[in-house]
Every structure is written in structure tokens, then in C-alpha cells.
UniProtKB/TrEMBL annotation:
The lineage of its organism: Bacteria, Bacillati, Bacillota, Negativicutes, Selenomonadales. Pfam families: Glycos_transf_2. GO terms for molecular function: glycosyltransferase activity. Residues 15-114 form the Glycosyltransferase 2-like domain. Keywords: Glycosyltransferase, Transferase. It comes from Sporomusa sphaeroides DSM 2875. The keyword Cytoplasm does not apply. Its EC number is 2.4.1.-. It comes from the Bacteria. This is SPBc2 prophage-derived glycosyltransferase SunS.
Amino acid sequence: MTESDKNAQLPITISLCMIVKNEEATIERCLLSAEGIADEIIIVDTGSTDKTKEIVSKFTDKIYDFEWIHDFAAARNYAFSQATQEYILWLDADDVFLAADRELFLNLKTTLSREITVVSMLYNLGFDQYGKVAFQRRRNRLVKRERNFRWVGAVHEYLEVYDRSFNSEIAVTHQPLSHDADRNLKIYELRLQKGEKFSPRDLYYFANELLDHRLFDRAIEYYQKFLETKQGWVEDNISACSKLADCFYNLNDIENQLKYIYQSFQYDVPRAEFCCRLGYYHLINNQLKQAIFWYKLATQAEKPADSWGMVNFKCQTWLPHLQLCVCYSRTGQYQFAFEHNEIAGTFIPEDPRIHQNRTYLKNLLKI
């Protein structure tokens, strides 16, 4: 048996690399969820003044200080440079592996081919009131150390990877308790003051920060600048249209809201989210025929081939059916209303609206 064959039978080894600052509320939860996954834990602290280091020291002695220079990529690259194992995994302090995903990851450790250099994982970003994933996307999470992949971007940084990759079904779950709402915006404003030229990606993420701070006019300016470059990733183009529609909705500018909903169709076939937006517009204007058209299209809309962009599960599952129940009920088509309510109920069976609609429609249909 060759040395290569022997290695192929052994589990891969993993360095977990994290950058932290004042994470005493979440870091232990994160590290506990990674026990058995990480063979080595690298913690780079950018200036904690709480008990973060004390808590981390229970898990690892590889704790490094890094002077904060308003550059997330620089800090992450430094963390990666301290790793010694075959693969590097990265997490944020408010991320966790849920039990089922831990099991999937432990299985991956024993089955992953060492020819794979990049493993992507799902990222659960939000949950509904029933504990089901509401928003999700995919991110590159595990990389082969010897390839020396680098982080790029002072804020909203990304890992620049290439070569043989594997899209796993393992999910990292984001469970924030709080965050510095102004941190990223301040970094972008500082870069603007220095006269830095923003890349298309910078324009998009700066606009996101402005929108989060409800600075709608400035957000519109930078989303439009981003789209005008015609160099954006298609998923970011579509997302920018969605966020521009949100901005104009908040400014009560319906004409431009509709403009950017329709502009999203330039980048891909109509997505369920935009069909639901149009359905809602026509529903509140009592244009029920048009509302039914768009909500039905939402139920039939082609789902993106992967989940690298943001996935809005409610628009792909229960929401258009529940709204079709409303539309058909208003037009007196109670059987159709009942059928769509029942379909919605397969996704959210405990929602009180499902039970109320069911009782109301059964009485009308004399079921």
C-alpha cells in the first residue's frame, strides 16, 4: 500500500480559524458546536476587552493578537497563516453547527477526497416563527491549506478560491445575539474619505449598509451605480433590484418600485420573490385577476440551480398559496381558495391563518 493510499483512508485534519472581538456571549457556544470537527483552533483577537480570551483559552492556547486596521480580509488572512492542519475551516463567533450538521461534518471528515480543495456549505441566515429556515445562501467554508487561498475585501470580504470544489449539504447556522450596527458603514465611509475607488462589489455592499441604516436616497444612489457598472454578479444584480424596490417602497415611489421589480427579469427568469411582490401590488389595488396571475407564477417559478444567492423560502413555498387563497376567496372561487390554503398548510400547518381559512371555506363549501 502506497503512502497516498494510507492517507486516503485517514480522516482529514482541520484548523478552525476565527477572528473575534468582544464575543463572550457567543464564542463558547460556537466552539462547543465545533468540538470533534476541528483538530486545531486558531483564534485571532482584534482587541477584546471582555472575557472572550478567557473563554477561548478553555478550548485552545493558540490565541493571537492582531491590531485592528479596519480590514477584515487582513485579519482573516493572518488567522489562516497560523494554521498547520490539512484543511482550514472558518466561522464567525455567532455561527454554530446544529446537531444534524455536526454529524454530516464528522462524516465528511472521513469521506472527503484529498483531491478536493474547496468545500462549500449552506448558511442559514434566518428562521421563521416555526423554526424553519427562511433565508439561506451558500458559502465556501473549508479549503485546503496548501493552496494558500486568500481573503479579499476590507469589509464583506470573500475567500478567493478555484480548482476542485464540492458543494456539501452541511449547514452553518447564524445565531447572532447582537452586533455593531455601525461598524461596516464606518469602514466604508472611511474608505470614501480616503478617496478609494469602490469596486462593483464594494458599491453593492455599501448600498446594503446604507439601506440597513434607512438612508434610502444614498442607498438608491449606490445601488444604481453598482448596476450601471454592468460588472456585478448576477445574484447581486437581482438582489440590488429587490433592495431598490424596497427603497422606493419606503419612499412611496410606486413607479420606481415597479421599475426595479421588472428590471430583475433582465438578469434571469422571474423569481418567486418578485412575482410575489407584483402579486401584492395588484392585490392591494384590488386588481385580483393580475394578482392571481403573479401569485400563480410564483408557485411555478423556476428555482435557482444553486443557493449561492439569497434564497427566500417563504416566497418559494407557502406565501403565494396563502395569497391565492385570499384572491380566490374575494372572487368567489372558494374551491380554488380552499385548495391553495391546504397547499400552504403543508408548509406551515400550525399557522392560525390556515385554520381560520379552512373553517371559513368549509362553511362556504358546506364540507
